[in-house]
């Protein structure tokens, strides 16, 4: 039997391929074969068929573009949103398909995705591609991370990795700063802690609606949806020598 790597969800099980894909496809599954080809099944307009589809309650599911010929060979990894897939090919190009509005249509950034992509990250309805020059390319639902126009200048280079909530992204740059975009209340707006995120960030973790950044000095910065644990504030973690566990404080540090 050929080796298969799955991306998507089906019958209550989730298979993932590609470390940047935090959000499995809810309606379809894509399998990457050992020969670099892709096999898909599930809901047609959500990635089950290898094409870009527009979905309308009035006109139904309409094929916009067929990409099946681009998925016959050379695919290195698969990524997904809730209703679309993105394939990263060995030559650094990207092929997308599924729901046109939720990441399946990358025609607006097609030139930027023709080469040089090293990894792809996903939110629920948007993708972010990291290129070898440290720049970031985004597409999908605009208000949920697909439109990074508001921080475009900060994403032209220097990005090392990207994290996501359901509807926002956070990019860590080589200088230890963090850039965020997407739905403001769910982590896209980090203005309340901008000074703390200007440098020294080591890594970022996320819930569905909030982010937490760990800094080199052991402090933790949080932002996003407050009910999900992210009242914007700065915490100092206590990490005893020789211990693998860090103890959270009883109260945040005063700014």
Descriptive account of the structure:
The chain has 255 residues and is mostly beta strands. Helices cover 0% and strands 42% of the residues. The chain is built from no helices and 19 strands. It has strands at 4-10, 13-15, 28-33, 38-42, 51-56, 60-66, 75-80, 84-89, 94-99, 117-122, 126-131, 136-140, 159-164, 168-173, 178-182, 201-206, 210-215, 219-224, 233-236. It has a five-stranded mixed β-sheet with strand order 6-5-9-8-7, with no helix packed on it. A four-stranded antiparallel β-sheet has the order 2-1-3-4, with no helix packed on it. β10 and β11 form a beta hairpin. It starts with a strand and ends in a 19-residue tail after the last strand. Residues 9-20, 237-247 and 250-255 have low confidence and may be disordered.
Reconstruct the topology from this structure.
Elements: E1 4-10, E2 13-15, E3 28-33, E4 38-42, E5 51-56, E6 60-66, E7 75-80, E8 84-89, E9 94-99, E10 117-122, E11 126-131, E12 136-140, E13 159-164, E14 168-173, E15 178-182, E16 201-206, E17 210-215, E18 219-224, E19 233-236
Parallel strand pairs: 5-9
Antiparallel strand pairs: 1-2, 1-3, 3-4, 5-6, 7-8, 8-9, 10-11, 11-12, 13-14, 14-15, 16-17, 17-18, 18-19
